[in-house]
Amino acid sequence: MSHTRYTRLAQSLPASVPFVGPETQERARKTPFAARLGANECVFGPSPLAIKAMQEAVPDVWMYGDPESYDLRAALAAFHGTRMDNIVVGEGIDGLLGYLARLMIEPGDCVVTSDGAYPTFNYHVAGFGGVLHKVPYRDDHEDLAALIARAHDVDAKLIYFANPDNPMGTWYSGADIRAALDSLPQGCILVLDEAYVECAPAGVAAQVDPHDPRVITMRTFSKGYGMAGARVGYAIGAPDLIRSFDKIRNHFGMNRISQAGALAALADQAWLAQVTSEIETARARIGKIAADNGLKTLTSATNFVTIDCGADGIFAKAVLDGLIAQDIFVRMPFAEPQNRCIRISCGQKADIDLFAAALPKALDHARSD
Amino acid sequence: MSHTRYTRLAQSLPASVPFVGPETQERARKTPFAARLGANECVFGPSPLAIKAMQEAVPDVWMYGDPESYDLRAALAAFHGTRMDNIVVGEGIDGLLGYLARLMIEPGDCVVTSDGAYPTFNYHVAGFGGVLHKVPYRDDHEDLAALIARAHDVDAKLIYFANPDNPMGTWYSGADIRAALDSLPQGCILVLDEAYVECAPAGVAAQVDPHDPRVITMRTFSKGYGMAGARVGYAIGAPDLIRSFDKIRNHFGMNRISQAGALAALADQAWLAQVTSEIETARARIGKIAADNGLKTLTSATNFVTIDCGADGIFAKAVLDGLIAQDIFVRMPFAEPQNRCIRISCGQKADIDLFAAALPKALDHARSD
């Protein structure tokens, strides 16, 4: 036998995973990107106060972070009007989704998501042996009613639902989501990923009772707060569920610099408002560039704009490749028919200028294929 | 039924965990510690070049870190004379131990460790349903031959072995460890935790063939490199085992600032040499303070010194409490008879001065109990 006795589950998992960073592409291309508009990072960066807090925290990084993230959780509880025991802080939403899958999913357990939704969630569910049931988008929106209906059919333990959605940028009102909770199957938890909600208009964030055991809400400092590389996310939920993370999480896993940065970022809501205003401006400009090129965009409540390239996935992929060939890092949805689109993160003016210059050539390239 | 349907494993896990940070103690005491000598952090801090690299990386934290940690892995491979595919970077050794447990352990699988060794490893093994078999220390050393013998008895998948050891600070020569590999059972992997090895004399690091499938070596930037709060560890092992981490790890889990800091820290070996010299000085001084108080110390190859308080665990706990009451944060071993000791991390001169002043009173307090 081979020396290494992996678990049966580990043996069954695919060796290749969908996580390819822009740096990997840059190494393969042997040239850097000129505009980084593919990962829905916030090019406007973190609050200057958060930058200052992180730089000041650097010399103290010889100390482990507080395993309770107490100060940050206290601030988040005050911000959201919850108790501290409604909140767990983790290594980004990605890390928290992994912990949640581990707590809930054993081999054969069913989970419902949208076909083409967040691959990292799927990765974690599959990584614990869960069975994913994928519901098509409807009119480029996640189909909440159909997700819930499927959860009834398969006795799902979890439904993943991002609001606003990635990769389409579309959304439901928070009121619609609250209303839908009553139709969830018994024993099914709605994983409400609000990663982009800071970029959304009022009324999109679902004002869920934090003690409601039927839903766990995920938030992050990676998007609106501009700290993707700091890996700080948090989940809001019923204390029993939140406390269960303590059974399995990496207690000393939080970066001390990031804890300080997130605390300062949360306190600077004026910066967040300015960033979301810049994002709105960038969204409008991306929309205009698309229109100038005869393309439609989806109305977005996020820090990116999804452009309908007007044909099929092969055509959109050719447009994407044409942009990448011109050193513009962008990505596109995976699943039909959403893969007729490409997804452009909101950049600085200079980034969008580069995109504006590159798009016509990319379209010419695609049309000439 | 309860709304939340945890896995059977999650339901079975204890709600309370052994991870209590000094901040938690400070909040309970309502007063900060004056000297932080309990978590084996490196009070001498990271290289000034690493501090500079991290501070410069802060404004770029809007970008995710490279999911491959390519530059850091390339530098580590060059440093260790391995190939890049021998190395996986993760969120501290803690994070990597969790991934390893997940890859290898399913409920009922046996794992061998020393009674009183690293609790985080035990936590991860138990967290995946593994059965821990604990072997007593012998003469305050981990008992490598007995660990291997027990692994044969129980068909263990993993043996955990820290060299140098925590919490005792004792060690084996690397040559002894290499020689022991031939007596490992078929299908058993030695998890060689070298967290403290940068503080050890020449010959302690085991020069294992990185392609040897019988061992995985764990290293960290938390101890000698002084970056505990940055959460950067790495494992060296056979490519098949290293590649398997990609099936389950949090691909975008690495902090971008920490990646930059670790790269700069690794390049500044002169700083590491200076720090290890300071650690040697502190170890000698702690030894002298103990001797001045009539206590013996264990010879240490780490950044801490274990002091034998000369009686039982109750007495050592009273000494510990007496130090904490004087605002000195220290910890002690868990298991008998090692719990006759307390463990003092190497501090700056000012920290050790405080310890020197506090120890006689703590001993008086313990003796008067």
Provide a descriptive summary of the structure in words.
The structure is a homodimer of 369-residue chains. By secondary structure, chain A is of the alpha/beta class. Chain A folds into two domains: 8-45 and 270-367, Aspartate Aminotransferase, domain 1 (Alpha-Beta Complex); 58-268, Type I PLP-dependent aspartate aminotransferase-like (Major domain) (Aspartate Aminotransferase, domain 2, 3-Layer(aba) Sandwich). The first copy, chain A, is 40% helix and 14% strand. Chain A has helices at 8-12, 22-29, 48-57, 70-80, 92-104, 119-127, 144-154, 174-180, 239-244, 256-267, 269-292, 313-325, 349-367; strands at 35-36, 87-90, 110-114, 131-135, 158-162, 189-193, 215-220, 233-236, 296-297, 304-308, 328-329, 341-345. In chain A, the strands form three sheets. The first copy, chain A, has a seven-stranded mixed β-sheet with strand order 2-8-7-6-5-3-4, with helices on both faces. In chain A, a hairpin with a 6-residue loop joins β9 (296-297) and β10 (304-308). Chain A is globular and about 55 Å long. Chains A and B meet through α1, α2, α3, α5 and α9 of A and α1, α2, α3, α5 and α9 of B.
